Amino acid sequence: MPAVILYGIAAYFLLAVAGVALVLFPGFRTRVQGFVGSIASAGRTPAIRLAGPATHALRWPLHGLRDIAGWLVARPLRAAGGIVLVCAPPLLVLSLQGPAIFDFNDDLRIADRQIATLLEGEQLVPPPPLPPAVFTTREVEQVRPNIVRASRNWQQLDQEFTQRLLVVFKLMQERHGYQMALIEGYRSPERQAELFSRGSNVTQARAGMSYHQYGLAADVAFFRDGKVVISERDPWAMRGYALYGEIAEQVGLTWGGRWKMRDLGHVELRRKGVLGQTARLATDANPQLE
């Protein structure tokens, strides 16, 4: 729920409670008037003379709360009705809130017209698959062991995530001259568990706790001169990762380059309540994954 709605509900609740207290509790109303009057007279009364009345006026909240508590105990039915009247509007607002819709951020329409046009335009088509041999080079194996077994099937990815990622690919090529390569998209729970077993330097996510399992994440590198370039020691690649992360965030993706354990090629489309679903299904079928 947007923060502005929560702030609005909180402000309404406080004002409603204060209004009900002022209307129903004469003692509370009298003390408020006395407190306001003491503040109003502060500008024309010496500080020494104000010390006593001001100290007395500052006690009004405690006395007011005592009056309210006594009234609630003596009139339980009226108290219940008042609580319902105060709480009903914010509860109604909360109940009318539908499920979260993960649409493109409205800010994109102001920040970058080209990105907005691409996101709202016709569906982009994934690039042709690269030969499997380009993923078996020594450079790639050092950074991403056994990546040749990874899925690079765009059809296994979430459609919305696919379109956002393809926009990133298109803009990286057109604006900066970088050809992008998908090195891993969907990842099965079994593969995630196997990668997790290799240690935290490979992944810190158990099976079901990575957006890869839901087709909402991808690992990406660059393709230059017939080779996949993935090394972080390559200045050209490092510049590319920075540009890639910037554009990915502009289209609403989360970039792994900002994490404490940096994953420069990783992007994901986060959705509330997604993580863990596959973990439960996978462990039910194969308890050894736990």
Written account of the structure:
- The protein is α+β, with helices and mostly antiparallel strands.
- The chain folds into 2 domains: 3-95, no CATH class; 108-289, Muramoyl-pentapeptide Carboxypeptidase, domain 2 (2-Layer Sandwich), CATH 3.30.1380.10.
- It is built from 12 helices and 5 strands.
- It has helices spanning 3-24, 26-40, 47-57, 60-74, 76-95, 108-111, 113-120, 138-143, 159-176, 189-196, 235-250, 277-285, and strands at 180-184, 217-224, 227-229, 254-255, 266-268.
- Strands 1, 2, 3, 4 and 5 form a 5-stranded antiparallel sheet that branches.
- A hairpin with a 2-residue loop joins strand 2 (217-224) and strand 3 (227-229).
- Helix 2 (26-40) runs antiparallel to helix 4 (60-74).
- The chain is elongated, with a radius of gyration of 30 Å.
- Residues 97-110 and 281-290 have low confidence and may be disordered.
Helicity range? 40-55%
Low-confidence stretches: 97-110, 281-290
Strand content bin:
5-15%
So, CATH architecture of the largest domain? 2-Layer Sandwich
The total of beta strands comes to 5
Summarize model confidence as the mean pLDDT: 79
Distance between the termini: 33 Å
* Name of the top-level CATH class of the largest domain: Alpha Beta
Q: How is the CATH topology of the largest domain named?
A: Muramoyl-pentapeptide Carboxypeptidase, domain 2
